[in-house]
Structure formats: structure tokens, C-alpha cells
């Protein structure tokens, strides 16, 4: 049996998992991420990996972008700071562990997991979007992540869809993440004076007839559909998979977006529009990291 290590680095927690070639998680360890100083987190990763007493093919790392995927470097993720920025993580861990280490954007790896073992496993061209705290995307062609010329393909969060639109954090005004993400939906509702804790509560108010909540939810679906229709016109994916809390926990969200998209493409294209919910859970990043490591091993 072959094994790979999947590592999911987040601003709050880091997870390390031992995953077999059937994509079954055999062991999983979680610990707090030191978001200012990577040395502590890297030390813990090394300790956990060395505690797995088996032959390891490779290590895949899932991390929020932006990343330098060509050189295996973490650039400037908003939830990681200090010496994390411009950290040559694949070289550091590879030298420490003497195992091949590969870095990928977290949304790309969630997409890869979907394409290899999830809802997209029977398709060649799989487009994935995660709509949660932020908004990320990944494109998989023939079970391989499409990175683009410089590794920045599908870094879509700041794509501007609405002139003088809402903004938050580093997202430009009118950026898709500032309109469609769970954080954006919640923040826009609070600015409108609504008392809510998350996007699901905004949707609940919309269903009860609150006009502000309805406008916010309608815009989130409308502009997401606009963007997906553009992607279909440009990429022509066989299937589009939506993940993240907004897509998975708000009843009818995915179905409504699919119906809107079908109205925004050419009539001859509409029958080929297939938008589904992710069938994978929060482990998609870890599983995608294992898919990456196993896929690289097959090339060697």
C-alpha cells in the first residue's frame, strides 16, 4: 500500500493527514497555526510526518493564495503574516523530511479532489468554485490542475463585476468575493442594519420577506451566475462544482444559480450547463493534497 501526506495550512489551524492510495484517511492530526511565525508550525508538521511509520510517496500542501506555485513559495495570504510571506516552504520541508513536497492553492486542491474522487471523477474538464468565507476557484483538465503561465490561474476573488460595488479587506470594489462570498453577504447585511451571524441567517430573512436581505441574496446569485456564464463561454467545462458553506448549507442556492446561468448562455449551450454541489466534506483540501502527491509520483 502506498501512502501520501496531505497538509492543510490555514490561518487558524493546520491539519496533517496520512492518506492511502485509495484516498482513505488513516490518521489525522490538527494543531493551531502560528500565523506570525512559521517555524513553530513547520516544526510540528515535521514531528507529525515523522511519527507516521510507513513509506511515504510524497507530501501535498494546501494553502490559501496568492502563492508562487512555480517555485513552491507562499507569497502573501491574508491570514498568514510575518515570515510566512515569501516562505520557500517546499524547499524547507523537503530538506527536513527528505520527501518530495508540492504546494498548491487550497481551492485548486479542493477542485482536484472533486475531479479525481468526487462529483467530477467521470469528466475531463472540471471547474470548481468554493463560496464560503472567501471565494476561490480551480480548473482541472485531465485530472491535472491548470495553473496558467505564472501559477495564478483561477485567482478570481478580485474580479470586478460591479462598478462602485461593495468591497472588503483587500478585495477591490465590486470584486466577486465582495458580492458573493459568505463574508460579503453577512457584512452587507450588517451594513443594512440587519442582525445576523452568517449568510444563512441573511437567507432566512430574505425568505421571510426582508427586502434588504432579499436584495443581497439575489445579487449574490445573480453576479455569481454572470461570472459562471462567462467561464462557460470561455472554458466550456463539462461540469461545474460548487462547494463551501454558502453553496452547501443554503437550500436551493446551487439550483437557483444553475437556472440563472442557463438564461445567460447561448440557447445551444444551455443543455450542457451542469452545476452541482460538492459531495466532499471539509477534508477536500487534504484529499486534494494527496491527489497531487500521488499524481506527481506517477510522473517520476
Question: Care to describe what's here?
Answer:
- The chain is α/β, with parallel strands linked by helices.
- It folds into two domains: 121 residues, Nucleotidyltransferase, domain 5, CATH 3.30.420; 159 residues, Nucleotidyltransferase, domain 5 (2-Layer Sandwich).
- A five-stranded mixed sheet has the order 3-2-1-4-7, with helices on both faces. A five-stranded mixed sheet has the order 10-9-8-11-12, sandwiched between helices. The protein has a two-stranded antiparallel sheet with strand order 5-6.
- β2 and β3 form a beta hairpin.
- α5 crosses α6 and α7 packs across α9.
- The longest helix has 25 residues.
- It is globular and about 55 Å long.
Key structural traits:
300 residues, 5-stranded mixed beta sheet, Nucleotidyltransferase, domain 5, 10 helices, single chain, alpha/beta, globular
Question: Secondary structure elements and their pairing?
Answer:
Elements: E1 3-9, E2 13-20, E3 25-32, H1 38-51, E4 56-63, E5 67-68, E6 73-74, H2 89-97, E7 101-105, H3 106-117, E8 125-131, E9 135-141, E10 144-145, H4 176-180, H5 182-191, H6 199-207, H7 211-235, E11 239-243, H8 245-249, H9 253-262, E12 275-277, H10 284-299
Parallel strand pairs: 1-4, 4-7, 8-11, 11-12
Antiparallel strand pairs: 1-2, 2-3, 5-6, 8-9, 9-10
Q: Biggest sheet: strands side by side, in what order? A: 3-2-1-4-7
- What is the second-level CATH architecture of the largest domain? 2-Layer Sandwich
CATH homologous group name of the largest domain: ATPase, nucleotide binding domain
In which range does the helix fraction lie? 25-40%
User: Which structural class is indicated by helix and strand composition?
Assistant: alpha/beta
Summarize the biggest pleated sheet. 5 strands, mixed
Round the Cα radius of gyration to an integer and report it: 19 Å
The N- to C-terminal Cα distance equals 18 Å
Query: What is the CATH top level name of the largest domain?
Result: Alpha Beta
What's the number of extended β-strand segments? 12
Quaternary organisation = single chain
- Spans of at least 5 consecutive residues whose pLDDT stays below 50 are none
- Beta-strand percentage? 15-25%
